[in-house]
Amino acid sequence: MGGLDYVGKRILRKDGPLKVTGQATYTVDIRPSGLLTGRILRSPHPHARILNIDISRALQLAGVRAVITAKDAPGIKHGFVETPRYPADQWPLAANRVRYVGEEIAAVAAVDSHVAAEALSLIRVDYEPLPAVFEPEEAMGTDAPEIHPRHPKITDPFSNIAGKTDSGWGDVAEGFARSHYVREDRFQSHLRTHGYLEPQVTVADFESSGKLNVWTSSQGPFIKRAKLARTLGLAQSAVRIHQAYVGGAFGGKIDLFSHEFCAALLSLKSGRPVKIEASRDEIFSAYRHGQPLIVELKTGVKKNGALLAQQIRVINNCGAYRGSGAVIIFLSWGFVMLPYRLPNLKYEGFAVYTNNSVRAPQRGHGAPQIRFAVDSQLDMIAAELGMDPIAIRLKNARQSGESLPNGDNVHNCGLSQCIQKAADHTGFQQKYGRKRSTAGPTDPVRRGIGIGVSSYFSGSLIYPNSSSVVVKMNDDGSATLLTGALDIGQGAETILCQIVAEELKIPMDEIEVIAADTETTPVDIGSWISGNAYVTGNAARVAATEVRKKLLELAAEELEANPDDLVVANKSVYVAGSPDRRLSYGQLIAAGIRKRRGDPLIGEGHWRTMKDVPFHPSLATTKGRWSENYAFDAQVAEVEVDTETGVVRLLRAVTAHDCGFPINPLLVEGQIDGQVSMALGHAFMEEVRMEAGRTLNPSFLEYRMPTIHQVAVSEHIDVITESYQKDRPYRTKEVGEGYVSAILAAIANAIYDAVGVRLFETPFTPEKILKGLGKI
Amino acid sequence: MVEYTGKRLIQLNINGEQFSLAVEPQETLLEVLRNQLGLTGTKDGCGTGECGACTVLMDGKPQLACLLLAIDCQQVKITTIEGLSTGRQLTSVQEAFLEEGAVQCGFCTPGMVLATSALLTENSRPSEKEIKKALEGHLCRCTGYNKIISAVQQASAKMTRNVT
Amino acid sequence: MRLPKFSCVKVASVEEASRLLAQPDVETCLSAGGTELLPRMKYGLSRPQKLISLKGVAAEAPVLGEDGSIQLHALMTLSAVAASHLVQENAPVLAAAAAAVGSNEIRNMATLGGNLCQDSRCLYYNQPHDFQFTAPCFKRGGDQCYFIPAGKKCRAVFMADTAPALISLGANVYVVGPVGSGSIPLEKLYSNDPLRPVTLASGEILSRIIIPARPMQRVEAFAKFSWRPGFEFSAVSVAVVLDLDEDRQTCRSARLSVGSIAAGPLRPLKAEAVLAGGRLSDKVITAAADQAAAEIHPVPHHGYSRVYLTECLRAQVRRVLHSAIGPLAKT
Fold first, then answer.
1. Which end of chain B is flanked by fewer CB atoms within 10 Å, N or C?
2. A696 touches C at CB < 8 Å
3. Which chain B residue has its CA at the smallest distance from A33's CA?
4. Hey, is the C-beta of A717 within 8 angstroms of any chain B C-beta?
5. What is the pTM of this model?
6. Where are the alpha helices (DSSP H) in A42-124?
7. Which tens digits make up the pLDDT trace of B60-100?
8. B6 burial type by CB count under 10 A (0-12 exposed, 13-18 middle, 19+ buried)
């Protein structure tokens, strides 16, 4: 089938020229004429009853065009998960009660931001403060304040349970009994946030025709349309989400947000376009962050290091509404199941309501927290058994073709190669356990090395369940690609274009991409759940293949040749062995118009993560298929610990990754580097610091995201376990989320290697290091 | 002494063009660029001088448009991202950012590109340390910075090659 | 984030600004680089009706006096201070401190005078109060401290990096005021009162910084410790200036100054005494660092605990002393 010209190549971003010249349009840049400024009134209380809201003075203020409260809303709740077990639990505007500081109570639209701010100050809300609870284990207590009425289907003896996952296989009691060594540890992670540079922002413009036009900084337009239409009581056909580039999301822009609802409702009421842009402090203090987990982990192993049994209890501080809190406790089970063979497991996950802001998925969605726990403990076990960290991981790593306890198959699995290559590349075994110092024994700086592994799924069944792509040919032989996929920085437009370019042999710059518009593009799963490259990628391949088939049929007629003897190259078709018998795409399209009543050349492709599986797996029991594809990786961290200041630096990160087939290695590297940097922030610095539901550091100055000075050397080793074959489905695996996980565990293990301090709680602050060293 | 009260006409020199604009004293250069002139390449990431996305060049020096009053910018040559390249012809810095994969979501890119251009104008062969010092105020959440450093190095190599 | 409405007067001189600032019936605020004031105004912490802007006043170039002292104009940007050859040669500790403030863009805007006159900072204070911490704390005119709820006083910390450097150099500042003008030691500018860390009276403006002549045998160094250098404020900053004997081994006098650990920069005088008059050695340096850590009780701030800051202070003092005398050890 010839070599690959586009797929697998380091092709430059399709949207690059627009972005380096400042011409790319983001939602923040949308300014329809007559635009009003919207602002939101937020609760100052973590928990309170709303006794009365008086908006009369705000309405009278000159320049105010609309004021809304829950009374103006159709009264429809929403939730990240909406199932019979987990019904929607959040109003877009608080009705009778507020459950966290920053919860949305009212919104105004005014001619400018000064009037909007003044209008907010004129709204009077009478509250009756209620007792509040912020820590999940406290909230589980039977005497804790009740944040939501008890859920009938979750029958634990605990309070405030928003979700529960129970899973397992085998017999853990027997597993522990047969174990040579058993240990129990408790790990705890902390609250971090996404740190997208483009703020949360929505522009809504309700036309007199009855159409609500919306631009919103998101991770996929179709789920936004569905949720927005429903909470507004509108038909989906009445809502159009338009494309705009997205300045980063990392999980933080998936679900419906109140500002989206408010901008839409304010536009409906005022008849004017309305923009609501969250300020950075609002994002830090009132928007959704990631999810800190408490992980209680008991593990039993054989003498040779083989895992025999694991018992895990995960407690998630899920905030005042369910958000993705019930999802992460399901996913955490999966991230335990994946990389290592485990004959016996008992898993329990709790999502617990607290009076904190709602939680969102965040890059890795549970994997960093779980892998930190499992891989930290595995190093402790290895030390106890006298094994090295590489050997114990190779002993337990899953192999190609293995079936998983949930009925999935790992298919091609490069985990062992990843571990081996990462170790070889870094000279791991020569360095490990040396407590090396950079200079002499008086040098306060110590170096250490550590490893972690991770695995991640690539797409799953969740609304809207599938992706479709349309490819249509233009008269000059160029093509237009229509996709619902949204480029949030990961390069969706570029890789889809590469696939179409490959199948049709059309240069990248002759393929126009129309993306992420609910009205003009086909449905798409969105840029989350790590399925874009695999699901939408295969849809694009099918669509392009269909166009190629049509082109070949036409060419066979015109050239009087057998379609099997035809070759596609350089926007033309020729007969194999006779390059002169050639027709360009332009000529073929002209012939098509002449002979086939003008039928255009259009191909459509559809793909779904698992074709024959009707639903997503159960969040409660984990039963049901989850994914068709799992990516694997091993990451090695080398750190430097300053034993006088406690400051740790990540010097070098080596990622050996099995991402199936890399469609664009340049973009794959970009994803890995970004995740190493995020893990570095996670490990050392980033923390949303909260006190009684209020945020102490709501700014980039005080929320410590890494700067260019913290950059670590990041190296990549490809373990390619799939090939791309034209006409055939391929398993491109995820690269967007999983690589933030193993490196976090590796850093923890490297710190231990450097100074002998074992940390059970993230972040690994200088203070914790000095405490571990007994210096303070 | 000049007093500014309410809306007043001011003169700004932006990307070589002279603009007469009516602004109020509290309007920042960032607001004027984005809202009045439609020069939306200059991004607003925080509004308090912490992310670097709104960086513009004031007489060639990178400064933060969110912390500049428009009325204070009248005697200066202002360069925004829109003023760097013409048509499809990208500058060496822009090319290098593309080629090295230093762009992902692109929100920090205009500020990064301008700060890099200013650096390379002053110092055509910066060391890695100097590159970091020049870009230390620019947050990027996508790339992890490595590819941005390579892009600056590549741009430097391109520019010095072009000169010789 | 938007600025509230105000009117703005662009003045042609510091003297003019001083006269305008003293207007009794209008709430005024002085703005130089704007990098501290504008975020404060966006957060609603300062609400001037009238802004007195110095942006139209050109910063004069540094001057080397006949007596060897150097005079710096307060409106010099921190970039200009850090890049000035005169400063680099005569007061490297200041060049280093100026280069350590904020980021490149901030240094291109922020002025030396503005850095020296900045307000004290606190996590609870330096943020908007639209729906968080809405009841005012001491610093916002209230009668409570969020940081220490039972506390009777404000615990905000003064975090300017150039102040310790200039104090260790024994700098004076020239203050222009409506009543009279004159120079005072920079140390006297600081009250150690977090509510009003800078002692300037209404209408007074710091216009010049005068650094005394540099003796022949002087070594100096500055260290800013923070988790993200080049971005955030110091957890601890330490400046040291040592004047040595001809032998370049014996310390004639020592001035140490520590920033970001209290409502103003502090000098560990006993630690200075440990250094002065004796031969410098590793042992003496360690003793001085221990002494500094013993006599200064840092105010915990920005998530750093007191015990941690004390350890950091010890390590930084030791390191900054080593870095100052480092080249000597080899000679």
1. C
2. yes
3. B35
4. no
5. 0.97
6. 56-60, 113-122
7. 999 999 999 999 999 999 999 999 988 889 999 999 999 99
8. exposed
